[in-house]
What we know:
Strand content: 5-15%
Distance between the termini: 67 Å
Shape: globular
Mean pLDDT: 83
Largest sheet: 7 strands, parallel
Helix content: 40-55%
Strand order of the largest sheet: 3-2-1-4-5-6-7
Number of strands: 7
Amino acid sequence: MKNITQSTSTHKPSHIVVFGGTSGLGLALALHHQALGWQVSVVGHSVAKIAHINSQHPDIVAHCCDLTDSAQTQTLVDNLSDISFQRVIYSAGSYTNERIHHLSQADSDKMLAINLQAFEQVFRWASEQLKHQSRLQNQSLDFKKNDRPSLICIASIAGIMDYPYASLYAKSKRAMIATASAYRAALVPYHIQVNCIASGYIDTQALRDLNDGDASHKPFVISTQTAVENVMQAIDDDVELAVFPRSMRYITRALNHLPKPLLNLILRSRLDKPTGYTK
């Protein structure tokens, strides 16, 4: 009988789908996988960014989807169900600086939809697809490390802190971390790897746009390339929750060991919006 797993890895490149893969860290990870020989599909909402990818990277398949629309997202994943893939990265995200701006209904809906609801929808779909492939291919026997089916989500170091006054963004990322951990436990019998990435500031165009074109003043900010290296290392080492850069990991670990009342006082004074702020 033909070894299906061996045949797939020998004759057909591994396939990755990156949600939020048309810019920033998502695009960088997509291009990195392409350089490694992976077949790459990306999902984004910007028609202009997708057109640019189609022009500059014709081997990458780009899909346009508004992840805030659950029906549109479901149609997309239903269509993607026809392809076989080994890895899904959820790198889509939405951020509003709640320390400066009042959180509008539109901002609230968008952050909740992209950072949590669409993430859960995509992870549920992707896990079912990978479980189905695992049953068909009997991948519980043996496979190369880099071919192991995997689900990866890009959270944020903001979700590491257990902080009652945290922003919607931080709370949604904290929920993402917990959800990924649950999937990791649930998918062990299927030999499906689940990793969550909680990084500090990454010098992407989106971060620069939020900071008048320059994010160099952000504490411990790292380049996109450094972030890619950290993410790939975490995947290779199968780290459940990868927190980087190292300096931020140490700081958050120390803060989380402080007495709760003191931690709340420090973070509320440092992170919350000033009283009486105006938009």
